[in-house]
Backbone:
């Protein structure tokens, strides 16, 4: 049974416009329309039809309203009947990157990296449950006391997380992460996420089939950067993308997108990222792009990078380039194939060429703060060598982050790779002097 069928009816003093509840007009709308006919229309046609019928009902039966108030009432009634209620205008705003609903009375949004609480909310807890139920029903999932957590995805690509009582102590919690727009490297340069020379370097590394790990914290822009760098993969290559929730928007012609599948209502039928990575190796890929590794699939990804699938791209949660190496070791050790620590270390050192670290500043800005190359050392180990670092200035009074991108000379191993593939580094990233220091062992 759906959650909305187990909860109380709308509050008598619910969300009112002109003295009449939105729920009242929604019921009147459903009484007037032919649902069978509505099912034959496209979503745009349904919305147009419902707006027309609602407008006629409000004009004929409702109170006298100003044009702006009348239009707002019609839109809200149709949003309730067809869409996601009060969330619809938020989802229509391209500047909003995250929507966080902490119970029916508290809605927060993230815009330009800053959190803001909105006035108003859902008319009742039941209305919020109805919205949640509508979202999860689209992906054949359910939320109830026996299964109080769920991850889902809207048809337009937004990622949704739901958690309800008894796990949540403040009512049903709904988090919607917006589908990231596909930015180009040139746009990211204009936004201050990197400088032009770094953009040229990353483009050359992708074309030279260098294995790149993009690391950073939650919301630091890893998927956005991954999407931007993937644009430099040549058109003639076969690309297999593997994600939990399909977010990448590659423009190449020969792209095979794969998406993992959570277990069904009975807890069966799950397809993991690891299953997809293993299957991708049988699909003759030129490049494998993994949205994020977070478990045993890390070892499979490292082995793929070491067996002829050069130029692979992957993201991972980590706080620094050094932390990225340690985290990859930990994740690879979670595989059911138990390897010695030294074997996992060697896999990482031979598979990973470059680590790109992203960070999110106090002002909400997202930028590359570190690029490091894994270079071989005389003792047979490997070291991290800086390629670029963002040197931040003291935080300004307005809490804006300023600084400069400082390039370092590329290590010979990367210069040779670029030279043999016909790619030249930007002038700022010239040959590395013999005395250039490397970081301590990882």
Residues:
């Amino acid at each position: 049974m759906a959650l909305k069928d187990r909860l109380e009816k709308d509050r008598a003093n619910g969300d009112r416009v002109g003295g009449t509840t939105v729920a009242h007009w929604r019921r009147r709308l459903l009484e007037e329309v032919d649902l069978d006919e509505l099912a034959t229309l496209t979503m745009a046609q349904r919305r147009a039809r419902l707006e027309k019928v609602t407008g006629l009902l409000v004009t004929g039966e409702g109170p006298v309203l100003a044009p702006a108030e009348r239009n707002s009432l019609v839109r809200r009634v149709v949003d309730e009947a067809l869409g996601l209620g009060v969330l619809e205008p938020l989802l229509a705003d391209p500047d909003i990157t995250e929507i966080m609903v902490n119970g029916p009375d508290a809605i927060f949004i993230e815009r330009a990296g800053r959190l803001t609480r909105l006035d108003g909310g859902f008319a009742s807890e039941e209305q919020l449950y109805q919205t949640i139920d509508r979202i999860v029903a689209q992906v054949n999932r359910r939320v109830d006391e026996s299964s109080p957590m769920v991850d889902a995805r809207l048809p337009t690509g937004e990622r949704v997380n739901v958690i309800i009582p008894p796990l949540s102590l403040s009512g049903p919690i709904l988090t919607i992460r917006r589908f990231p727009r596909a930015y180009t490297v040139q746009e990211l340069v204009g936004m201050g996420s990197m400088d032009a020379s770094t953009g040229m370097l990353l483009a050359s590394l992708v074309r030279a089939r260098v294995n790149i790990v993009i690391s950073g914290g939650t919301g630091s822009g890893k998927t956005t950067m991954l999407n931007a760098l993937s644009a430099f993969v040549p058109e003639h290559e076969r690309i297999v993308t593997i994600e939990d929730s399909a977010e990448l928007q590659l423009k190449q012609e020969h792209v095979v997108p794969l998406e993992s599948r959570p277990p069904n209502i009975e807890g069966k039928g799950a397809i993991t990222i690891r299953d997809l990575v293993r299957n991708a190796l049988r699909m003759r890929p030129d490049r494998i792009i993994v949205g994020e590794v977070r478990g045993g699939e890390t070892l499979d990804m490292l082995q793929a990078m070491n067996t002829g699938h050069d130029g692979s791209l992957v993201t991972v949660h980590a706080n620094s380039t050094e932390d990225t190496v340690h985290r990859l070791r930990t994740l690879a050790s979670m595989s059911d194939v138990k390897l010695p620590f030294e074997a996992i270390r060697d896999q990482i050192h031979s598979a990973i060429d470059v680590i790109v670290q992203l960070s999110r500043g106090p002002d909400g800005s997202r930028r590359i703060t570190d690029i490091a190359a894994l270079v071989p050392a005389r003792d047979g180990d490997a070291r991290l060598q800086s390629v670029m670092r963002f040197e931040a200035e003291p935080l300004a009074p307005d809490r804006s982050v300023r600084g400069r991108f400082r390039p370092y000379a590329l290590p010979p191993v990367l210069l040779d790779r670029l030279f043999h593939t016909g790619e030249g580094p930007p002038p700022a990233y010239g040959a590395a002097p013999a005395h250039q220091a490397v970081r301590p062992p990882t």
